[in-house]
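User: DoxX family protein. Structure?
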Amino acid sequence: MIDNRFAPYGAFALRAGLGIMFIAHAYLKIAVFTVPGFAGFLGQVGFPGFLAWPIILAELIGGLAILTGFYARLVSVALLPVLLGALLVHAPNGWVFNAPNGGWEYPAFLALAAVVHVLIGAGAFAVKPVAFPASPAASLRPRLG
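Assistant: Predicted structure:
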Protein backbone atom coordinates (compact mmCIF):
# COMPACT_ATOMS: atom_id res chain seq x y z
CA MET A 1 0.00 0.00 0.00
CA ILE A 2 1.24 3.46 -0.81
CA ASP A 3 0.89 6.13 1.85
CA ASN A 4 -0.46 9.04 -0.18
CA ARG A 5 0.34 11.51 2.60
CA PHE A 6 4.10 10.96 2.35
CA ALA A 7 4.62 9.54 -1.15
CA PRO A 8 5.20 12.96 -2.76
CA TYR A 9 7.99 13.66 -0.27
CA GLY A 10 9.56 10.26 -0.89
CA ALA A 11 9.48 10.95 -4.63
CA PHE A 12 11.06 14.35 -3.96
CA ALA A 13 13.84 12.72 -1.90
CA LEU A 14 14.56 10.30 -4.74
CA ARG A 15 14.49 13.15 -7.28
CA ALA A 16 16.81 15.33 -5.18
CA GLY A 17 19.30 12.51 -4.64
CA LEU A 18 19.33 11.62 -8.33
CA GLY A 19 19.74 15.25 -9.40
CA ILE A 20 22.57 15.89 -6.94
CA MET A 21 24.32 12.72 -8.08
CA PHE A 22 24.26 13.83 -11.73
CA ILE A 23 25.56 17.30 -10.80
CA ALA A 24 28.32 15.78 -8.64
CA HIS A 25 29.43 13.46 -11.44
CA ALA A 26 29.54 16.33 -13.95
CA TYR A 27 31.64 18.34 -11.48
CA LEU A 28 33.93 15.34 -10.92
CA LYS A 29 34.55 15.05 -14.66
CA ILE A 30 35.38 18.76 -14.94
CA ALA A 31 37.34 19.42 -11.75
CA VAL A 32 39.04 16.11 -10.99
CA PHE A 33 39.34 14.06 -14.17
CA THR A 34 39.39 17.19 -16.43
CA VAL A 35 37.58 17.24 -19.76
CA PRO A 36 40.64 16.06 -21.73
CA GLY A 37 41.21 13.30 -19.18
CA PHE A 38 37.59 12.16 -19.42
CA ALA A 39 37.79 12.29 -23.24
CA GLY A 40 40.88 10.09 -23.07
CA PHE A 41 39.10 7.67 -20.74
CA LEU A 42 36.18 7.44 -23.17
CA GLY A 43 38.63 6.57 -25.94
CA GLN A 44 40.23 3.85 -23.80
CA VAL A 45 36.88 2.16 -23.19
CA GLY A 46 35.76 2.30 -26.82
CA PHE A 47 33.64 5.45 -26.96
CA PRO A 48 34.53 8.51 -29.05
CA GLY A 49 36.33 11.20 -27.04
CA PHE A 50 34.15 13.95 -28.54
CA LEU A 51 31.31 12.66 -26.33
CA ALA A 52 33.03 14.09 -23.22
CA TRP A 53 31.37 17.52 -23.35
CA PRO A 54 27.89 16.24 -24.33
CA ILE A 55 27.99 13.74 -21.44
CA ILE A 56 29.19 16.36 -18.96
CA LEU A 57 26.58 18.89 -20.07
CA ALA A 58 23.83 16.25 -20.04
CA GLU A 59 24.75 15.33 -16.48
CA LEU A 60 25.02 18.94 -15.32
CA ILE A 61 21.94 20.39 -17.03
CA GLY A 62 19.95 17.18 -16.56
CA GLY A 63 20.92 17.03 -12.89
CA LEU A 64 19.74 20.60 -12.37
CA ALA A 65 16.46 19.85 -14.16
CA ILE A 66 15.87 16.73 -12.09
CA LEU A 67 16.78 18.49 -8.84
CA THR A 68 14.39 21.37 -9.49
CA GLY A 69 11.66 19.17 -10.94
CA PHE A 70 11.73 20.85 -14.37
CA TYR A 71 10.34 18.15 -16.68
CA ALA A 72 12.28 15.81 -14.41
CA ARG A 73 10.63 12.57 -15.50
CA LEU A 74 11.44 13.24 -19.14
CA VAL A 75 15.00 14.19 -18.23
CA SER A 76 15.43 10.93 -16.31
CA VAL A 77 14.36 9.04 -19.44
CA ALA A 78 16.76 11.11 -21.55
CA LEU A 79 19.67 10.40 -19.18
CA LEU A 80 19.14 6.63 -19.14
CA PRO A 81 21.56 6.13 -22.06
CA VAL A 82 24.29 7.89 -20.05
CA LEU A 83 23.66 5.57 -17.10
CA LEU A 84 23.49 2.49 -19.30
CA GLY A 85 26.73 3.55 -20.99
CA ALA A 86 28.38 3.82 -17.56
CA LEU A 87 26.97 0.40 -16.71
CA LEU A 88 28.54 -1.09 -19.85
CA VAL A 89 31.89 0.55 -19.08
CA HIS A 90 31.97 -0.76 -15.51
CA ALA A 91 30.45 -4.22 -16.15
CA PRO A 92 33.78 -5.97 -16.84
CA ASN A 93 35.18 -4.73 -13.50
CA GLY A 94 32.94 -6.89 -11.34
CA TRP A 95 30.03 -6.20 -9.03
CA VAL A 96 31.12 -3.78 -6.30
CA PHE A 97 31.95 -0.19 -7.14
CA ASN A 98 35.11 -0.17 -5.00
CA ALA A 99 36.64 -2.79 -7.32
CA PRO A 100 39.55 -1.49 -9.42
CA ASN A 101 38.05 0.92 -12.00
CA GLY A 102 34.65 0.64 -10.31
CA GLY A 103 32.12 -2.16 -10.55
CA TRP A 104 28.70 -2.12 -12.10
CA GLU A 105 26.44 -2.08 -9.04
CA TYR A 106 26.41 1.72 -8.65
CA PRO A 107 25.52 2.58 -12.28
CA ALA A 108 22.93 -0.22 -12.23
CA PHE A 109 21.37 1.19 -9.07
CA LEU A 110 21.31 4.70 -10.54
CA ALA A 111 19.65 3.44 -13.74
CA LEU A 112 17.04 1.69 -11.61
CA ALA A 113 16.54 4.87 -9.54
CA ALA A 114 15.99 6.84 -12.76
CA VAL A 115 13.39 4.30 -13.93
CA VAL A 116 11.64 4.45 -10.54
CA HIS A 117 11.65 8.25 -10.76
CA VAL A 118 9.99 8.08 -14.18
CA LEU A 119 7.35 5.66 -12.86
CA ILE A 120 6.42 7.45 -9.63
CA GLY A 121 6.73 11.06 -10.77
CA ALA A 122 8.51 14.18 -9.62
CA GLY A 123 6.88 14.40 -6.20
CA ALA A 124 6.66 17.49 -4.03
CA PHE A 125 8.24 20.87 -4.85
CA ALA A 126 8.58 20.22 -8.61
CA VAL A 127 8.86 23.38 -10.70
CA LYS A 128 7.27 21.89 -13.85
CA PRO A 129 5.97 18.35 -13.28
CA VAL A 130 5.08 16.08 -16.19
CA ALA A 131 1.99 13.89 -16.02
CA PHE A 132 1.78 10.82 -18.20
CA PRO A 133 -1.57 9.31 -19.20
CA ALA A 134 -2.91 6.53 -16.98
CA SER A 135 -2.16 4.01 -19.72
CA PRO A 136 -1.19 4.19 -23.38
CA ALA A 137 -4.63 2.89 -24.30
CA ALA A 138 -6.33 5.65 -22.26
CA SER A 139 -4.83 8.33 -24.49
CA LEU A 140 -6.12 6.57 -27.63
CA ARG A 141 -9.77 6.25 -26.56
CA PRO A 142 -12.14 8.61 -28.35
CA ARG A 143 -13.67 11.27 -26.18
CA LEU A 144 -17.45 11.46 -26.18
CA GLY A 145 -19.54 14.53 -25.62
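The chain has one domain: 8-127. The mean pLDDT is 92.
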